[in-house]
# Entry
Amino acid sequence: MKKNLSVLLVSVMAMATVLTACGSKSKDAASDSASENSSADAASGSSNDIALLQNLDKLEVKTLADINPEEYVTLGEYKGVTVEVPPASVTDEDVDAYINQLIESNPAKIEITDRPIQNGDIANIDYEGKYADTGVAFDGGTAQGFDLEIGSGMFIPGFEDGLVGVKLGETVDLDLTFPEEYGSKDLAGKKVVFTVKVNKISEKSKELTDEWAAGLGMEGVSTVDQLKETSKKNLTDEAEETYKTQVEAAVIDKVTEIAEFKELPQEIINRYLIQQNKQLENYAQMYTAYGQPTTASDIVHIMMQNTAPDQQDPEAYLKDLVNEISQQFVMFAAIAKSENISVSDEDIENYLKEAFDAGNTGYSSLDELKGDVDSEDVREGLMTEKVVGFLVDNANVVAPAAN
# Structure
């Protein structure tokens, strides 16, 4: 468990001070018949709520300000720890691979006029779906100018196969049946007729052209050379951000490893359990917004599968996770006290103002945001960022020895 905790904690640490609203997206189930969220599917089979996440409003809590953190942790030599992290680097091969991915996801299209649709073509179509018995169009079954890759499996069985051999400008009726297990009860197992008109036939091209590069819509990109320059910059930025995260995780791991902990007050653990539950609920809302009803307990199952596949008890997994997160926050508080690192009310005020001004909090006014935020949550989050920054600044980061 502990070997994965630093990554989780960096995420928790960042989320503790990020106040973003969870948006929602609609999903066109009728036209995207094969689209499902596989990660959420893995968890959705679990109907048993985790007891540890129930009745959290009845728990007694304490903040870090309510305890003397040094009573619960003996710090090691946390300044100057040595960690090995591969340096950020981007090669020409990385750039080529990235551009190849762009080609796969946004291929150049060569329009075809002298033959019918073949498997692998992209057909631009208008279509309308109707119930076979009544002739009434069903919701979500109509579109104009839709680009469909033949053979992609995007539509229900028989739809794409039924377009193979159809010529440009032709209109065909496809007599099909929705699968019995289809997500919409109104369509599952129903016989339907899709009337489809073929507007355009294209085939993919992997040729790199300035016209294709300009068509990607990337800022400042109108040629292949500019695309390569922009791609390298974007990949370098991502690599440097990944390197920063890996360094933070490695330093947190090392400093935690050399510290010794005593049993923490249950009220402190309760506080971080409640905070963790808030994050679990946020993730669950995101899944649910995409059409896959999910609970906080489901998210714990997903986390457990991803970080501790041998663990079979989600209750024990969550309990260990929260206990270790609690220990590390107490450790950060002890380091902050030792190094005179503090967070002022002005720091909190400035942070909330910056978050609100950025326009991503979902609150209509700064006062509304302040009224809905636990200032101690923000204080602890900002303290953690300062402490981790201090530890990283004083760490000895080296590249792993070459084999």
User: Anything to note?
Assistant: The first helix runs from residue 2 to 15. Residues 2-27+34-81+258-398 form one domain.
